[in-house]
Amino acid sequence: MTVARIAGILLGLVALVVTMPVHAREPAVQPPVEIVSIELVGDSGTRFEVDGRRYVGPLRFLAMADGLALAERASIEQYLQGIAEMPFLWPEDALQAQAVAARTYLARTLRGGRNGDAAKYAYDICATSRCQVYKGVQLVEDDHGDRWRDAVDATKNELVLSNGVPIEAVYSSSAGSRTRANQDVWASDPVPYLQPVDSPEIGVAPYATWQIELTADQFVQILRADGVAVGGSLMALDVDDPPEGLGRASLTVVTTGGTETLLAPSLRGVFNRRGDDLYPGALPAKLPSGLRLPQPLPSATYTIDHVVVPARVADRFLPEDDYPRGDRIVIDGEGWGHGVGMSQWGARAMAESGSDHSAILAHYYGGLEPEVASELVPEVVLVGLSNGRTAIEVAIDGDASLLVNGVPAGQISSGTWYLRATGDGVGVVAGDGDMLVLTDRPWPR
């Protein structure tokens, strides 16, 4: 449908509003209504492409103070099929365990209600690693996607429950030799089903074990760049590491420029925010296999040592700040991710050894096996894709309905369209630059 025809439909709707009979003493002209949302609802087979990813939709564009917020309204199967958390060529039972964990994580998230960005931008769950990585329909429509679709279908409505409530089904890529207790990684009380268990992935997972080595000066500079109040030369590094299950370890860093104590798990964030920017040649570190670590500090499971290089005799005649420093920091670690709950590489190893998806989940979640609980699984979920955008390009393959503030406003067809934040809400621009005027006039309520 052409831009001119859509505009005609919109103007027709406006005319309908303006010409409706009104009481003689009431004003004949209604004030403009701000366009706060636009929704694109695809016909059967229609696909929307945004930022290189394909979606079934409907797509919702919401006008916010900081720009446009984009979300997809997806069925539960549509959402789960878009989860990009495990390679589709992995064993069937590992994929099924992942499908149940993802479904349980979603059900738990929805049970807690919207908060933070979800409340601000009116969605249920985000599409990034802060929640679960979601990439739309392209995954199951591309190579080997049928294997993941089958895993989702085979476990339909299955959840892992504790006392009838979906568990906090956290998972990570690799735990190394053993998973972590939730209270040893996060500021939380012990959760019975998130306690340490052995994980059979040493020699299987590429990042099951690793080592990072850097100079003491590099270590101090990374901390300082992230706002830790240290500087100068490293004098001492003290580690307080409680026994397993008794809380988080801490590091006390003593330098000539200050002394600071930080929780050992927080060092991962410091390194991952600053390490590769400051020392791109050294971090992420290279493994003997030739692979580089996926992050400067991949997990919170590690030991750290300050290797002191004694000063030479001649150095004693120099001021202390001029001593040549050869001290090093050596970090020996395991896994990739927080290490709490299910290890994906561990699930793969268990599946290859003959364990089914129920046994895998029970192993990592305190003996709890999945069960069918359709009443706890939503039919539709609103997935937050992005926010704070001034403009969003949408390539449409097929036909779609256009809804403005929830009101049908005609059809648009294949082509490139732009949704833009305007002073009046949201504007729609065709690929040829023609603007659909949706504001500055009365709008059907």
Structure, described:
- This protein is α+β, with helices and mostly antiparallel strands and 445 residues long.
- It has a domain of 124 residues.
- Helix content is 24%, strand content 28%.
- It is built from eleven helices and 24 strands.
- It has a seven-stranded mixed beta sheet with strand order 6-18-5-4-1-20-21.
- Strand 23 and strand 24 form a beta hairpin.
- Helix 3 packs across helix 6 and helix 8 packs across helix 9.
- The protein is globular, with a radius of gyration of 27 Å.
- 38% of the residues are buried.
- Overall morphology: globular
In what order do the strands lie side by side in the largest sheet?
6-18-5-4-1-20-21
User: For the terminal residues, how far apart are their CA atoms?
Assistant: 24 Å
| Main sheet attributes: strand count, strand direction, barrel closure | 7 strands, mixed
Provide the structure class. Answer: alpha+beta
Question: Helices, strands, pairings?
Answer:
Layout: H1 3-18, E1 37-42, E2 47-50, E3 53-55, E4 59-64, E5 67-75, H2 76-81, H3 92-111, H4 117-121, E6 125-126, H5 138-141, H6 145-154, E7 158-162, E8 165-166, E9 171-172, H7 182-185, E10 210-215, H8 216-225, E11 234-240, E12 250-255, E13 258-263, H9 264-278, E14 302-307, E15 328-333, E16 342-343, H10 344-352, H11 357-364, E17 370-372, E18 380-389, E19 391-397, E20 400-404, E21 407-412, E22 415-422, E23 425-430, E24 435-436
Parallel strand pairs: 6-18, 9-16
Antiparallel strand pairs: 1-4, 1-20, 2-3, 2-19, 4-5, 5-18, 7-8, 7-17, 10-15, 11-12, 12-13, 14-15, 19-22, 20-21, 22-23, 23-24
Helix pairs in contact: 3-6, 3-10, 3-11, 8-9
